[in-house]
Specification:
It is a single chain. With 734 residues, the protein is an alpha/beta fold. It has 23 helices and 17 strands. The chain has an 8-stranded mixed beta sheet, with helices on both faces. Strands 15-16-17 form a 3-stranded antiparallel beta sheet, with no helix packed on it. A hairpin with a 4-residue loop joins strand 13 and strand 14 (686-687). The longest helix is centred in the middle third of the chain and has 64 residues, at 247-310.
């Protein structure tokens, strides 16, 4: 520090007298003794302060101090970028690129300043700003409404229950409020303050810029949009969606963006009033859309809140009250619906975890099973209602609303067992836009059927027991603002923005825990006091949400990727998403296996028939290689092959494999075999039949919004007959 002081003094006192120089050097020696035993923080501060002063004096003494300063900052920026590449090889590539681009921008800053000055002179010709302020204000308000209200509510209203009761936040409107306040500040308050501060030319420039941003954002969000798929509170958009090439969208979006700029540059004086009117109309339209979605969200949230209240929300200090009642003397039939449970994982599970797999002795596994679609919308109705509710048969009744047909399918199994003197309990329906997993309004006409909404109900108890507390509501608050910006960006920029803002450490962890916590307490939710025959339907979406788990217990989420994670031999070539999908698959089967042990301990195993089924599979990277057959297997076959298993009465032998051609629409026939001789559809007044001898039509549903009020809009993609092997998939031209 003293040496720096002396050199700084030499530089600073070149023109000073001898007396002044003595004072400077003497003061440096005084500070040496005064600060010799001082805390290191103070000394470090003093050193850096002197280094800064020393560098400033050197630069100011040069002929072109601005140029020298820019060179020094550029060298520093480039060095920092290079060091980041060398010292942080594990950092995300997008962050490395962003830092490098920032360093290059610093280097090229003088050129950008010159270019912007020329652009400003070219862009701004008018100096009268009185007529521009209304357009500027409307553009600011429009951008704030779009980003803060319309886009967040679009997502939240699609599944309001998913965004309710997250962490310590009860209402989904809390996130909308945060988003609205944030974008009001960014898009209205600060721009207005800046607008008042600058001169007339800058005000004109700001008006044109804000109008361009607003119109471009609206076009990008509603015209040049992607199919983002199903989103949860993490707003994790599939990388496949963002990395896919969209040449037409990119060309059109960029073309419209520059067309607006050119129009404003050449003819703004003539169209400024029309622009204000157009902006006002857009603002009204966005407000109307937001209002509509807010009403929809409130309606669902109010029902969901009441549903939870009716189910006597879990008291952390009391025992869990059982809701699944089995009989020790009469027949029990239990159907587990596991969303997105992929069939191909079960053989891997058997091979890698034989002790856990032994808990499923007595089961028959059907590997040759196919679903009618690769999404819940297309695969769930036939799974719960039989062949009358395949996509083809649903569309054949084009005058009946889809919601009514979904409600019918959910009631087919319960009503058939109810007619045969079974006690009925239903918990966890397949979640679609028509009904949420906790929404049982379709059952209101049948009070004999007991329904329980346990999704999210036991999350706080689980967090306390496992000492896992993740502030998912804070994650949601951040994610919803980022996703709004992402939608408003040009398509070509979305993947880069997602790479910078995406939190890879959590992905689907919150959604997994909300579902898994109920399954974790399944043994507490079960008793054996039922006196009559019992039919129980238990739905759970845990396999749908890929996340990293503690592979020693398979009941705890790992925050961040576990570098020492256990990888099954069969998945050595798999990607991270496939491994996470397998881990949650194992976690679910482990909890069901422990529940099976409970049945054995209570002498209720032999008199209970259990069906484990799913609505569809999922694309995973199980088959190595990049050839056409491998790609088709990983993407199409795996996505359409759900898990299907059954344990019959008095069955305790080792796991059997049955290669009979099955569909998940056979679930009701497996569940009722030998119990109900004449299965009926009470809504159509006809017997239920198995319709697969001539093959089935399979839909590769590309959109989760591919329906109208009455019909599913996607056409069948394949016809599959006798076997799910590749050779039996006949592609249907569209």
């Amino acid at each position: 520090m003293t040496v720096i002081n002396i050199f700084s003094g030499i530089s600073y006192s070149k023109q000073s007298s001898f007396r002044e120089k003595i004072q400077i050097y003497g003061l440096a020696l005084v500070f040496l003794f005064l600060l010799y035993n001082s805390p290191s923080g103070l000394v470090i501060y003093w050193i850096f302060n002197n280094l800064f002063s020393f560098a400033k004096n050197i630069v100011k003494s040069c002929k072109n101090p601005e140029k020298i300063l820019h060179i020094l900052i550029s060298v520093f920026s480039l060095s920092l970028s290079l060091l980041f590449w060398i010292l942080r090889p594990d950092a995300k590539f997008s962050k490395k690129i962003l830092l490098t681009l920032a360093a290059l921008f610093v280097c090229a800053l003088p050129f950008f300043l010159k270019f912007s000055e020329k652009l400003k002179n070219r862009f701004i010709k008018e100096t009268d700003t009185k007529e521009y302020f209304p357009l500027f204000l409307l553009s600011c308000l429009g951008l704030a409404v779009l980003l803060g209200l319309t886009l967040p509510l679009n997502v939240i209203s699609s599944d309001a229950a998913e965004f309710s009761f997250i962490g310590n936040t009860e209402s989904p409107f809390s996130y909308v409020k945060t988003s609205a306040l944030l974008f009001t500040g960014l898009c209205v308050v600060w721009p207005l303050l800046l607008y008042k501060m600058f001169d007339k030319n800058t005000k004109v420039f700001m008006t044109k810029s804000m109008f361009t941003l607003f119109v471009s954002a609206v076009l990008n969000a509603f015209v040049f949009k992607f199919n983002y798929g199903i989103l949860n509170v993490n707003f994790a958009v599939s990388s496949d969606v963002l990395q896919k090439s969209y040449p037409i969208l990119n060309i059109l979006s960029v073309s419209f963006f520059f067309a607006i700029i050119i129009l404003l540059t050449s003819k703004f004086g003539k169209i400024k009033k029309k622009s204000a009117y157009a902006t006002f109309i857009l603002l009204i339209a966005l407000t109307a859309i937001s209002t509509k979605n807010a009403i929809k969200t409130k309606k669902v949230f109010d029902y969901y809140k009441q549903n939870i209240a009716n189910q006597n929300n879990d008291n952390l200090n009391s025992d869990i009250e059982p809701i699944f009642h089995l009989s020790k003397t009469e027949q029990n039939v239990v159907v587990f619906f596991l969303d997105r449970a992929t069939s191909a994982f079960f053989p891997i599970f058997q091979e890698e975890m034989p002790e856990l797999a032994e808990k499923f002795n007595g089961f028959t596994y059907f590997p040759n099973t196919i679903s009618f679609g690769n999404s819940t919308l297309y695969g769930s109705t036939a799974m719960i209602g039989g062949y009358d509710y395949t996509p083809e048969n649903i569309n054949s009744r084009g005058n009946i609303p889809l919601q009514k047909k979904y409600d019918e399918s959910a009631l087919i199994m319960p009503l058939n067992f109810l007619a045969n003197d079974f006690s009925i309990t239903v918990s966890g329906l397949p979640s679609t836009d028509f009904r949420d997993k906790n929404d049982f309004r379709g059952f209101e006409s049948f009070p004999e059927i007991k329904t329980y909404g346990i999704f999210k109900k036991y999350i706080k108890r689980y967090e306390r027991e496992k000492s896992q507390r993740i502030k998912f509501d804070d994650i949601c608050r951040k994610g919803i603002t980022n996703f709004s910006i992402l939608q408003a960006l040009l398509p070509a920029a979305r993947n880069s923005f997602s790479g910078i803002t995406k939190d890879n450490t959590l992905e689907d962890s919150e959604a997994f825990l909300n579902n898994f916590s109920s399954l974790y307490f399944l043994r507490n939710l079960t008793d054996f006091h039922q006196e009559k025959k019992s039919f129980i339907f238990i739905g759970n979406d845990s396999p749908h949400y890929a996340t990293w788990l503690n592979t020693e217990s398979y009941d705890e989420v790992l925050i961040g990727k576990n570098q020492n994670k256990y990888i099954p031999n069969s998945l050595k070539t798999a990607d991270d998403e496939t491994i996470m999908n397998y881990q949650v698959f194992v976690a679910v089967l482990k909890q069901i296996g422990l529940w099976l042990d409970l049945l054995r301990e209570n002498n209720c195993f032999n008199n209970t028939r259990i069906v484990i089924t799913s609505d569809h599979g999922y694309k995973n990277k199980i088959s190595p290689g990049s050839d056409k057959e491998s790609k088709f297997y990983n993407n199409e076959i795996l996505a359409h092959t759900p898990l299907l298993m059954v344990k019959d009465f008095d069955s305790a032998s080792k796991i059997k494999i049955d290669k009979t051609f099955m569909t998940n629409a056979d679930t009701i026939f497996l569940a009722s075999r030998g119990i109900i001789n004449n299965l009926k559809n009470p809504f159509l007044g006809q017997p239920l039949k198995q319709e697969k001898s001539d093959g089935i039509l399979v839909t590769n549903a590309h959109s989760n919004k591919s329906y109208n009020k009455y019909k599913l809009l996607e056409k069948p993609s394949f016809k599959v007959k006798n076997n799910v092997e590749l050779s039996n998939w006949e592609e249907i031209s569209r």
